[in-house]
Amino acid sequence: MTGEVMIFLVLATIAIFGALVMLNASKVIHMLLALVLTFLSIAGLYVMLSAEFVAVVQVLIYSGAISIMMIFGIMLTKHHHDAKERTYRSSQRGWLVGVAMVLFFGIMYVLIEGVNFGATAPDLHVENTKQIGLSLYSHYVIPFELVSIVLLVAFIGAILLAKREEDTE
Amino acid sequence: MGWLTLLVFSPIVGIVLLLLVPSTQAKLQKRIAVICSILPLIMSIIVYQQFHSGADLSIRVPWISFGQYPFSFFVEYELGVSGFSLVLLLLTAVLMIVSMVTATMQIKKGWKQYALLTLLLEIGILGVFASQNLILFFIFFELTLVPMFLLIGKWGGMEKERAAYSYLLYNGIGSAILLIVIIVLFANVGSTNYEAIANASLSTELSMGLLISLLIAFGVKLPIVPLHTWMVRVHVQAPPALVMIHAGVLLKIGAYGLMQFGIGFFPASFQDIAPVVAILGLVNLLYGACIAFVQKELRSLFAYSSISHMGIVLLGIAAMNEAGLQGAMFQTISHGLIAALVFFLIGVVKEKTETTYITRLGGLSRTMPLTAGVLLAVGLASLGLPGMSGFVSEFMTFLGIFESMPVIAAIGTIGIILTAAYILRAVMDITFGKEVLAQQGIADLQGKEWIPVSIMLGLILLIGVFPTSLTHSIQTSVEAIVLRIGG
Amino acid sequence: MTVHAFLLLAAALFALGLFGALTKRNTVIVLICIELMLNAVNLNLVAFSKFGVNPAITGQIFSLFSITVAAAEAAVGLAILIALYRNKATVQVEDMNEMKG
Amino acid sequence: MTQIAWIIPFFPLMTFLLCFIFQKREWHHLCSRVGIMTTGLALIGSITVLIGQMIFGNSEAVISWLSIGDTVFSIGYIVNPLNALMLVIVSLVSFLVHIYSKGYMAGEERLGTFYAYLGFFTFAMLALVLSPNLLQLYMFWELVGLGSFLLIGFYFHKAEARAAAKKAFLMTRVGDVGLLIGMILVFWQVGSLEFSAIFQAVSGGDMDSGMVTLVALLIFIGAVGKSGQFPLHSWLPDAMEGPTPVSALIHAATMVAAGVYLVATLFPLFEASDTAMLVVAITGAFTAIFAACIAIVQTDIKRVLAYSTVSQLGYMMLALGSAGYVAGVFHLTTHAFFKALLFLAAGSVIHAAHTQLIGEMGGLWKRMKGTGWLFLIGTLAIAGMPLFSGFFSKEEVLLAVWKEEHYVLFTLGLITAFLTAFYMFRLFFLVFMSKKIIPYKRRKKIFESPRVMILPMVVLALLAVGAGYIHTGWFGPFLGEWLASGNEYITLHPHEGAGWLMAVTTLLTFLGIWMAYLMYQKEKLDRNYLSEAFPGVYEAVLNGFFVDVLYQRTVVFATKCLGIVGTWVERYVIQGILHFIEDITILVTKLASKLQNGQVQTYGAMVGVGLVVLLLIGLMQGRFF
């Protein structure tokens, strides 16, 4: 067992553990913190996959921005039902979805087993950020700009939506 | 563009003119509607003249094409007439005038919309009979559906919505099946021209399946017995002026379709299921008559009577010989006139006495002797008295069916007696029955009301006394079909 | 290390996220679960950029876009949540059934 | 001269049209005049045709009426001895009835309608008689039925009249359907409906014997319906609800004789089948005695005459069924005259006495001598008194039966002759002679009928006496020879006067008259003896052996039941199925709308599960697209 595999196993275990904790925690804030754990371990996996820049972005956006935003969201709303929050709804739906998801994973497992691309990119980690930057500003400049517009629109929309009703008048 | 196009779209003149008149001027509107409904009649008389002088009336204009070689499809705008559809066109034009005149007297509110929708309906009906292309036929067929739905739903009786919806539902299913048939034919033949389809060779199984689908599609319209409940409801709920068109022409689309498409496209398969059709006809005939016998309400009685009479049409079609087919066509026209007149009278009676229950109408011949007299006359026509149109068709139909299926024919003759029984029961109880109708000062037939009566009664007598006046038109259609059957 | 391990991990995270999104009653958690699913997908993208048929930087760039859109989504989702909460004073998914037929 | 035949029916049709248009009260005096005039013209035309036929022989002309493919159905006219004779009978009786009605119906507020109907009936009857083919015959056969229907129901405010009219129409229609089927079968066998073509086919053996029998029997059903033969006879007595002149014209002389006429016209067809002939004979004989029995106990003057008509028509059928073509036609002729006379006389009595019940009459002889004498002549004629017309024709009928060696039927015929004499004289004695004194007040009001009513009766009385001499053993069988001369298919049986038969019938007649005299005039025999001894039988006979009740309980009931069952099927089976479909649709939509619970997560779950299922299927199939 190489070190690489060991690191992978550790990170994967943390990620899944975080996800499971998120699903089973009783307090919303705990859930969120568990998820941050998952996000961080995924960032670690990105590093393993020679994607240092993405890993940094992952830490910044997910572990940082989105998590903070969620915390704000949680704090701005009341969560009386926190104590009563059941992980699995008593209805059949929980079981149904659970079984479906297990099956889904099984199917994916079977399918992934059959995948073999063979090729490996050798030099992604060499000047990773530079490569991304070059591509973004040359090849993908239009999508990049479009995404920026999407972001702008989304944030303006979010502000508008979150504004109090009386403010609009 | 040809006379036929002008004929089919001639009601548009009325529609446009009516739209130009403000809705406050009711009198002017009525005048315009009546006058404009004469236009199709003039057109159809011209077409009649042209047809009998041997002119070629058919039109064929490229219309829609799609797909790429070798799977290209063409739909053409094709109009044309056969002898049978010609008389149906005439019948439509005549009944439309009569119905419009009736409507001016009996439709009180929303007159303008009523007239507009009726004229639209007329385009649909005329188009159905004049088209020579299945796609075109279907478009016109659907065009009859919507105005009719609105007309029933807005101007009907107590349960008008229910009636309108059951009309739409049944006929919608019917046209859906029809559409499937048309598409299958289109895909298999590559054209929807009547002749092209008739000449195409389809496998036996396919044509049998298509034929049965057609039987259901037009069986809804005709209607064939288990599919008839909508029609009774419409007869009872729709305004009598509308039922005149409905019973007079719309139901005939079923008969026309069965003859034009059923036998016309699949003669061999039709031969195979002719006994089934005959039995269906028998059931229609007897079942309708039996139920009509115990009805207490005039409109439902004559609705079942229509079912019974359509049984005769089915028998005639099932006979698959000259006499039977000619009888079926004759019956189609004859019943169109008779039913229209009956419902006109019912409209008059309902208008003036505000009831249509037989028990409440006793002694009509005292209060409204002329109405009662005409009702008796049309009742007699309906039960097939010689000298009236009903007899000729019954005679020919039974002549035909006795040749091909004597046993069914023999059972069918019971229908003649039953028809007499229920018609007499109804007519006698109404016109001559115990005098329940005590109201005084009920006006009898008068003035404008004589127009519909005299036109229709005159035509019933005309084709009853001189049947050749009608048969010399439908003869060509009969011959064409018989040639197809190969008999 | 093969691509399989990453793909399996991503699949597992995706399944867990989907499960949460479909069963959790708290809207915030549902949103969080959706983020988890997006992460799983991103993991796939990045994995393919290393082990794909045509391994290239494109996968990473795409995952960047995806993260951006996810951020926008989270922002809008939370805004909607706040607006809803203001109107209905609840964040329970069951209570948001305006589309009930 | 015979070429004008086609025009004859149109004269009465003119009456119909004119009287129908001008039926207002102020035109009434014109209506009767128009009616009398046009039937007079028809009578002149008919006599011309008759003479023309005698001089020039038969003639025929047809025009095409309807064509189906290559087959042409024609209408037109044919003149042969039989229908020339019928033409004269019909137009004569109709003419006389038109005159008579002027008096009888005076003051009727719907006189115009009455004459219109009479004209219509006469038109249809004349056209029926002129028919050269079965189709035309059938058409006018139906139309005379309509005329009869309208006239029976003339007093439509009376429920009985309505019911009677309806019954008459429906019962004859049952027969008509038989005729229709027979006609259609003939058509498919022969390929034409012309009488001549049918006879050729029959004599040429183109139709197999079974088919001939079937067709003949079916056509006979039509005749049974029209001529009031058992079992379709019961409409005829009820039809007496119509005005009396109508009964005289339609239900005595002309329309009811149409059935006999039909059998006579198609005689070659019937003759070709022994079975058919036997059925005709048996039906006739049975009807004759059956109706005579009922006639004995009837209390309504017109019903007695009606049953008597049924009985006499049975006689004619018996004659025809026994190959007595001439006898049948002969009796038809004489019967037309004396029965019309009897009805008109009865009408005169009713007109004066304002009642139809025999029990309320009696001793009218003194007040109405003229009517009394005329009625007596008619009675003598029908009873078969020697030297009166009925004697000759009845004897001819019985002779024909004897020669066919139908001894049972012959006996029945003899008994009927006796019964006829008995019930007719019962009627005569009770109405005119009985000593019972009508209350003075009512008696004072009874006057002899006006001359316009007496005159037609006198004409008929003369014929009732004299018509018998056209075919006798003494002066030669003129009628028979003439009838046979115009019809190649009729073989004339040589007339052999059987002296013993004459003696027997005369004896029976006198016996009948004597018994009636004893019972009802001298009252030496207790008239109620039998009815008291067998009350059940009496009840049965009085009600016409409950035939009507039987029909009411079976046919009418069955039809009603069918209708009700049909409605039930309609309401519960068909509507039930529809409701079932409707319910299923609603159930499904309800279930589906339950899925649409607004919970986005549920939708998502469904999508997810669906995806998994699809993936599973894909996995099992080994392909995903």
Automatic annotation (TrEMBL), chain A:
Transmembrane stretches, start-end: 6-25, 32-49, 55-74, 95-112, 140-162
A matching Pfam family: Oxidored_q3
The organism's place on the tree of life at top rank: Bacteria
EC number(s) on file: 7.1.1.-
UniProt GO molecular function: NADH dehydrogenase (ubiquinone) activity; quinone binding
Keyword line: Cell membrane, Membrane, NAD, Quinone, Transmembrane, Transmembrane helix, Ubiquinone
Substrates-to-products reaction catalysed: a quinone + NADH + 5 H(+)(in) = a quinol + NAD(+) + 4 H(+)(out)
Family affiliation: Belongs to the complex I subunit 6 family.
Name of the protein this chain belongs to: NADH-quinone oxidoreductase subunit J
Organism: Pontibacillus yanchengensis Y32
TrEMBL record, chain B:
Keyword S-adenosyl-L-methionine: no
Keyword Hydrolase: no
Membrane disposition: Multi-pass membrane protein
Domain of life: Bacteria
Residues of the NADH:quinone oxidoreductase/Mrp antiporter transmembrane domain: 131-419
Main location group: membrane
Subcellular location(s) per record: Cell membrane; Membrane
InterPro entries: NADH_Q_OxRdtase_chainM/4, NADH_UbQ_OxRdtase, ND/Mrp_TM
Keywords from the named record: Membrane, Transmembrane, Transmembrane helix, Ubiquinone
CC terms in the record's Gene Ontology section: plasma membrane
One annotated GO molecular function: ubiquinone binding
GO biological process assignments: ATP synthesis coupled electron transport; electron transport coupled proton transport
Bilayer-spanning residue ranges: 6-25, 32-51, 79-102, 114-130, 136-155, 167-187, 207-230, 242-267, 273-294, 301-320, 332-349, 370-392, 404-424, 450-470
Family matches, as NCBIfam families: NDH_I_M
PANTHER family, sorted: NADH-UBIQUINONE OXIDOREDUCTASE CHAIN 4
Family, per entry: Belongs to the complex I subunit 4 family.
Annotated protein name in UniProt: NADH:ubiquinone oxidoreductase subunit M
Taxonomic classification: Bacteria, Bacillati, Bacillota, Bacilli, Bacillales
From TrEMBL, chain C:
Translocase found in the keyword field: yes
Reaction(s) the record says it catalyses: a quinone + NADH + 5 H(+)(in) = a quinol + NAD(+) + 4 H(+)(out)
Keyword Oxidoreductase: no
Primary location: membrane
GO molecular-function terms, A-Z: NADH dehydrogenase (quinone) (non-electrogenic) activity; quinone binding
Subunit structure: NDH-1 is composed of 14 different subunits. Subunits NuoA, H, J, K, L, M, N constitute the membrane sector of the complex.
Function: NDH-1 shuttles electrons from NADH, via FMN and iron-sulfur (Fe-S) centers, to quinones in the respiratory chain. The immediate electron acceptor for the enzyme in this species is believed to be a menaquinone. Couples the redox reaction to proton translocation (for every two electrons transferred, four hydrogen ions are translocated across the cytoplasmic membrane), and thus conserves the redox energy in a proton gradient.
One GO process term, biological-process aspect: ATP synthesis coupled electron transport
Protein's cellular compartments: Cell membrane; Membrane
Keywords, in A-Z order: Cell membrane, Membrane, NAD, Quinone, Translocase, Transmembrane, Transmembrane helix, Transport
Gene3D superfamilies: 1.10.287.3510
Name of the molecule in the record: NADH-quinone oxidoreductase subunit K
Enzyme Commission no: 7.1.1.-
Ranges that cross the membrane: 29-49, 61-85
Membrane topology listed for this record: Multi-pass membrane protein
Main EC class the enzyme belongs to: translocase
Family the entry assigns: Belongs to the complex I subunit 4L family.
Gene: nuoK
GO cellular component: NADH dehydrogenase complex; plasma membrane
Superkingdom of the source species: Bacteria
Cleavable signal peptide: none
From TrEMBL, chain D:
Protein name in the entry: NADH:ubiquinone oxidoreductase subunit L
Keywords in alphabetical order: Membrane, Transmembrane, Transmembrane helix, Ubiquinone
Topology term for the membrane: Multi-pass membrane protein
InterPro entries given in the database record: NADHpl_OxRdtase_5_subgr (IPR018393), ND/Mrp_TM (IPR001750), NU5C-like (IPR003945), Proton_antipo_N (IPR001516)
Chief site of localization: membrane
Domain NADH-Ubiquinone oxidoreductase (complex I) chain 5 N-terminal: 65-115
GO-annotated molecular function: NADH dehydrogenase (ubiquinone) activity; NADH dehydrogenase activity
Gene3D superfamilies: 1.20.5.2700
Single biological process term from Gene Ontology: electron transport coupled proton transport
Transmembrane segments: 6-22, 34-55, 75-100, 112-131, 137-156, 168-190, 210-228, 249-270, 276-297, 304-330, 336-353, 373-392, 407-432, 453-477, 497-520, 600-620
All copies of domain NADH:quinone oxidoreductase/Mrp antiporter transmembrane, residue ranges: 131-420
Source organism: Pontibacillus yanchengensis Y32
Location(s) in or outside the cell: Cell membrane; Membrane
One CC-aspect GO term: plasma membrane
Family stated for the protein in its record: Belongs to the CPA3 antiporters (TC 2.A.63) subunit A family.
